[in-house]
Design a protein that fits this description.
- The complex is a heterodimer of chains A (148) and B (130).
- Chain A is built from 3 helices and 8 strands.
- With 148 residues, chain A is an alpha+beta fold.
- Chain A has one domain: Chemotaxis protein chec (3-Layer(aba) Sandwich), CATH 3.40.1550.
- In chain A, strands 1, 2, 3, 4, 5, 6, 7 and 8 form an 8-stranded antiparallel sheet that branches.
- The N and C termini of chain A lie close together (7 Å).
- Chain B starts with 12 loop residues before the first strand and ends with a helix.
- Chain B has 5 helices and 5 strands; from the N terminus they run βαβαβαβαβα.
- In chain B, strands 2-1-3-4-5 form a 5-stranded parallel sheet, sandwiched between helices.
- Chain B is globular and about 30 Å long.
- Chain B has a single domain, classed as Response regulator (Rossmann fold), CATH 3.40.50.
- In chain B, β3, α3 and β4 form a beta-alpha-beta unit.
- The chains are: A alpha+beta (148), B alpha/beta (130).
- Chains A and B meet through α1 and α3 of A and α1 of B.
Chain lengths: 148, 130
């Protein structure tokens, strides 16, 4: 069972990225539980966790949201690589905050990035997952926490 | 502390930006407001950074930590060996104290967590230049 504080670390890291980097706070929708592998959106930044917990945490977002985020960040490159770069940075922030808040019993990977709506997910994805909607402006992304 | 850029200052210090994210490299280059800093190049990992460092001899470096091929911690140690006077600001999402201490022990002079605002970046650089 996930502890509330662990979920809070992942959520805070994600919302902090919006507040600071994109200069506009995101709101959190109602979290829900899902069996199996949740669907992903166009771009996904993912970290793997092992040790005390096993599984994955990922941030998955539509291209339209990432495009507006890049505009707010004064970027003028909206290429596929830049979209991948951006979700990687969100995942990087989640990874960094988890390393800060969790004990050394957690082994947290560096982020990897997937694109497309049917990417090859790491093997730990697909068990029971918490899904936290991340709403920003008129767009919605998902933070998925899939840990045992 | 507030950043104190010199609007009409002479460009006299060379800055190298090291980060595996294109977005972050451009962001740092665009947001730093110090006229005396001239960006001499950017690198996407520690190996590229070492090569660029030898070619351009920068005075100031911003350094990411989590990068492919050679990470920032190892790169900091090598840069300081090449030029002990170089000023290095670590800019990383790794937010734990142990990482900051390790970077400082290798020779970094400052630490800024990602994500950051323009103001935080310029304050961190201002401190580095003091």
């Amino acid at each position: 069972m996930l502890y509330e504080q662990e979920l809070k670390t992942f959520i805070d890291a994600t919302t902090n990225f919006f507040s600071v980097a994109a200069q506009e706070p995101a709101s959190i929708g109602s979290p829900y539980l899902m069996e199996g592998a949740p669907s992903v959106l166009e771009y996904t930044g993912i970290i793997s966790i092992s040790g005390k917990r096993e599984g994955v945490v990922y941030f998955t977002a539509p291209k339209a949201m990432l495009t507006v985020m890049l505009m707010k960040m004064q970027e003028n490159d909206f290429s596929h690589e830049t979209m991948r770069d951006l979700v990687g940075e969100v995942a990087n922030t989640i990874s960094g905050n988890a390393r800060r808040d969790f004990s050394r019993e957690f082994v947290i990977s560096v982020p990897s990035v997937l694109s497309g709506e049917k990417p090859d997910m790491p093997p730990h994805a697909g068990r029971r997952s918490f899904i936290i909607p991340i709403n920003w402006r008129s767009h919605s992304a998902k933070l998925v926490v899939s840990l045992s | 502390m507030s950043a104190n850029p010199k609007p009409n200052g002479k460009k006299s210090l060379k800055l190298m930006i090291v980060d595996d994210s294109n977005i972050m490299r451009r962001r740092i280059e665009r947001s730093q407001q110090f006229e005396e800093l001239q960006v001499v190049g950017t690198a996407g990992n520690g190996v590229e950074a070492l090569e660029l460092f030898k070619r351009t001899d920068p005075d100031v470096v911003t350094m990411d930590l989590t990068m492919p091929q050679m990470d920032g911690i190892e790169c900091i140690g090598r840069l300081v060996t090449l030029k002990p006077a170089v000023r290095i600001l670590v800019i990383s999402a790794l937010a734990d104290k142990a990482t900051a201490v390790e970077a400082m022990e290798k020779g970094a002079n400052g630490f800024l967590n990602k994500p950051f605002t323009d103001r935080q970046l310029n304050e961190a650089i201002a401190e580095l230049l003091c």
